[in-house]
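Continuing from the previous page of notes. For each protein in this section, the sequence appears first, followed by its structure tokens. Read the first protein now.
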Amino acid sequence: MTQYPEFGAGLWHFATYVDRYAVDRYGDPRGTLEQIELAGKVKDLTWVDINYPFSPGVTVDEVKDALKANNLKCVGITPEIYLRDHVRGAFTNPDDAARRRAIDIMQAGADMVRELGARYVKTWPGQDGWDYPFQVDYHDVWKKSVDAMRELAINNPDLNFVIEYKPREPRNHMIWNNASRTILGIQEMGVDNVGVLLDFGHSLFGGETPSDEAQLLIDHGKLFAMDVNDNFRGWDDDLVVGTVHPIEILEFFYTLKKNNWEGVWQLDEFPFREDVVEAANLGIDFLKAICRTLEVIDMDAIAQAQAAQDAIAVQRMVQKALFSSMAGE
């Protein structure tokens, strides 16, 4: 019997969405508690990453009760430091008061991690960056980003912080835009409790090989968490995992297994037009097929083929293992 890992999802998977065409949303708005209730309908889902602040009027005790009622646990808190108040930046905002508000939101998120017994505070300062040449002093915005993360890490030594890098969107260039740059920033912070959440889709979108970045982060002891989805590489589409790049996703999890990396396998999907529960079920079904593949795949034979850089031999092995496993348990 296959031993599956624990599966998680960003709670935003169960929200409704807007874009510049459907500004009135692809469905009626759903609050934190409604999202938790929908997440509870997904088979094999154990963990959720929760946005903070919660929906207006929702208390932490209500969140605790909802999680318990739906047999869910909070894996992380994602403070919302990328909204309207932060359009000129969160940590890099030229207004010191706005910058302090962003740091305060992060601190409140850290307090909520303790309240909910979560594993980390997730940092996604999507508005930190620039849009035009000459718009910013690059030394200044880099220092502000590093200093803010260092401050949070030092003030909360009992907690882990993860940075989720992304090449762009909403800014045309984001401060934390690839794995190597993020590692450099963390090293400059000089703290042990800041790492990386590697988003598979962001890595694809950034022109990276996600497995290569996972190995780099593992080698530096900084792969604290990960999530998966899929896209067509030209944008952060947040499609259901496995629908576009199944072989590369298999390689990603092969790399994690090879390095004995343990953690929650998380979904970061945005099913704009799809049923949110069924989209999550499909993603987890694919991840379970990945698990079954990793049980039967011949890692020694793959290592031998890699040593010879024999692309055809290794593709035969991984395709046969994956597509056989997808046929069922």
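Done with the first. The second protein uses the same format. Note its length before scrolling.
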Amino acid sequence: MTEKTRKVRGPYAKSAETRESIMLAAYEIFGEVGYHGATLKAITDRVGVAQPLIFRYFKSKDELLLSILERRDAKAVNISPLDTNFPLESMRALCLLMKFNHENRLDVVLHSMMAGEAIDPKHPGHDFFVRRYAFLLDRLTELLSGCQAKGLLNPGWTPAHAARIITAAMDGLQTQWLIDPNEDLSGEFQALMEIIVKLS
């Protein structure tokens, strides 16, 4: 690596590190006090940078929030892609996702706080969650239909009904777990999934 290359890469690396620090601080503060309770000053104070610097990376507080929500969902997709070509494997991966969430409390706090606030149509995350839940229900219904076609959906369930119960269980179990960390989040979800789908 030449001296010239080091000079070019140095500021870029520092910029990426600062952006990452801002996102992490925002992750924490949005989860602690919600969108309306959070301020850009509180976020930059936690990072230890001047408040105007945040606008070098994000046009607004709304954009910062949406960037964080999209990152959180991207992590979930990496663990559980919900691939319609592999319906049973996708159902198993959902259990892995809940295990991951059990070990990453900050992600669960952020999701639960923002999903609750986003019930308000004026909340900047409202449309994000409307799209997210619509996609999740549609994709789960497809996957469960695939399981049904292979004889893997247990009797008494329809794909659409099971998709709604699974979605509700994920959010509900996570909320209970945040209130009482002694709850077995991943174990209880696994037990529910085995009632719905022949996982093994």
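What the second structure shows: Helices lie at 3-37, 40-47, 61-79, 87-102, 105-117, 126-149, 159-179, 185-196. Residues 1-6 have pLDDT under 50 and may be disordered. We return to this in next week's lecture.
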